[in-house]
């Protein structure tokens, strides 16, 4: 069974959005395990960004047949995707879709941007899910 765990992390290393798609029970039961993997991968992503000119990084790390891909936006926001799917062709398009939705969400002048508030509306979550279904399923 394929599973995906997606997170948006701000420039201060605080997760501001997390979503799970088609969760395998092994991952769902160990949410702390996933967070440890993500924070370890943030260090790798910070190293890789200075060695490459791109913003999308496929297969940054592999842990127990689980791949981690990342994306770095212009404002320092990072997207991380934990997945067990070996086909990574559409991950870049998925990240670009989500980045576009993210930019739309933070451009709202009435919206506070911090990890404390619920930054993302139902519309944002629906757009993320639709992009996931279209690009990765």
TrEMBL record:
Keywords: ER-Golgi transport, Transport. One of its GO terms (biological process) is endoplasmic reticulum to Golgi vesicle-mediated transport. It is found in: Cytoplasm, Perinuclear region. GO terms for cellular component: perinuclear region of cytoplasm. The keyword Ion transport does not apply. It comes from the Eukaryota. The keyword NAD does not apply. Belongs to the TRAPP small subunits family. Sedlin subfamily. This is Putative trafficking protein particle complex subunit 2.
């Amino acid at each position: 069974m394929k599973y995906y765990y997606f997170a948006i992390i701000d420039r201060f290393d605080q997760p501001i959005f997390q979503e799970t798609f088609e969760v395998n029970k092994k991952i769902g039961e160990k949410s702390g395990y996933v967070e440890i993997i993500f924070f370890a991968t943030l260090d790798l992503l910070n190293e890789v960004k200075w060695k490459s000119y791109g913003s999308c990084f496929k297969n940054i790390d592999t842990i127990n047949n689980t791949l981690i891909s990342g994306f770095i936006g212009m404002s320092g926001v990072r997207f991380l995707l934990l997945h067990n799917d070996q086909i990574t062709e559409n991950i870049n398009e998925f990240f670009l879709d989500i980045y576009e939705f993210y930019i739309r969400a933070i451009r709202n002048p009435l919206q506070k941007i911090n990890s404390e508030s619920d930054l993302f509306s139902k519309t944002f979550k629906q757009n993320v899910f639709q992009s996931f279904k279209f690009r990765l399923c």
